Amino acid sequence: QVQLVESGGGLVQAGGSLRLSCAASGRTFSGLAMGWFRQAPGKEREFVARFSRSGGMTYYADSVKGRFTISRDNAKNTVYLQMNSLKPEDTAVYYCAATLRVITTAQGMDVSRYDYWGQGTQVTVSS
Fold first, then answer.
1. Which string of DSSP letters, residue by residue, matches 73-124?
2. Continuous segment of H or E residues that includes residue 51
3. Nearest 5°: phi and psi at 107?
4. Which residue has better confidence, 37 or 29?
5. Once rounded to an integer, what is the mean pLDDT over residues 82-104?
């Protein structure tokens, strides 16, 4: 079993930055594909960024490329999401997710492929 706990959300003005953290427990990163999703009010949960299972590759949604960076600290079993140049449309609850499944690039953007989820952290970007 994998437990995920997010932190770092908050209120920021447009153009500002935030860094989210996701601490994993229950097992090491080995074999886990970990990523970030977000859900805005009235919208479906959507993919933001993720690592491959090996941790050697990163993938981003087009809407955040060049602004968000996913990183990890294996020693701390923690994944981060650095968010820069934030826009009001980035406002959402951000969720950390993990899966042990072998997933393709396309499948990695599918919420149904992830078995473990954090409780979410609110990010609000004011204009």
1. EGGGTEEEEEE-S--GGG-EEEEEEEE-S---TTGGG-GGG--EE---EEEE
2. strand 46-51
3. -65, -30
4. 37
5. 95
